[in-house]
Amino acid sequence: MVTASPRRPPPRSKRQRLPRNPKRPPPRSRRPRRNPPLPPPRSRPRPRRLPHGHPGPTPVDRTAGFPHEIEASKLAGYGFAVTSTETVEYQYTGWQNIDGATYYYDPATHQPVTGNQVIQGNVYTFGADGALNRTARGIDVSKFQGSIDWNAVKADGITFAIIRCGYRGYGSGALVEDSTYRANIRGAINAGLKVGVYFYSQATNEAEAVEEASMVLSLVSGYSLPLGVYYDTEKVAGDTGRADTISAAQRTACAVAFCETIRNSGYSAGVYSYASWFYNSLNFANISKYNTWIAQYRDTLNFSYKYNIWQYTGSGHVNGISKPVDMNIG
Length: 330
Known about the structure:
Number of helices: 6
Distance between the termini: 134 Å
Structural class: alpha/beta
Order of helices and strands: EEEEEEEEHEEHEHEHEHHEEE
CATH topology of the largest domain: TIM Barrel
Strand content: 15-25%
Helix content: 10-25%
């Protein structure tokens, strides 16, 4: 009897694995640790684009950060680190249009400006909340501006003009009509601008002031003057005028006599000068019932009394006028 040898199992392949121990659970897969999601930054509404023709917005500076504390260790792998609590805040600069209102943010403080401000050579008026008020831009002109293209002036955004109709010589005392007055008032009215006139006074007494007012009334006869007539009183620049040495009381009496003569003829009347002249060379309480036109060449008006028109520069540039011109806001 031949005894068969026991069958030997085939050799195990190197790639063949032994069955797992059913009592031992399979190892858990190790997933890579994920960083926690970052909280979204706080944000403010994006400013809308300004209408065509308005100064464009200056690019906004932004301060990066997060609305609440984040542990620096949780930001590992994000390419930056936070060493202290930070918050997101949009810092606006320049012109911005937010929720239908226009603002100008000071480049230094990033806060909206208020009141009257000169920005890029133009005057704008902002409310207490910083919103832009739509204000009228105007000029005042005389023979020193030469020939004027009033249609071009109107197209450049100018809405009113105050025109010199005449003056009294500071040496001779003679009354003189401005050589460009008639052309200027007709041109401004025909172009659709609101107009007023002014007279440069060198009156030394009330009789001379009434004489000046009477000349003005003869020159404006037949014209509508929405801005009325202004009495220009000031020190002669670079010289001595015949009215420089009269007292503040006498100068005030001259202004009152002029304005009352104008008002009695149905026109509104006012006084033009600069701040120190109003403070020191006139008794403002006696002329406060008339319109006030104040000249002060600075970015923000600093004047203690109520005013109607602010002349903010003597070197403005307007299309249609080849020479520098006084600019006003009213």
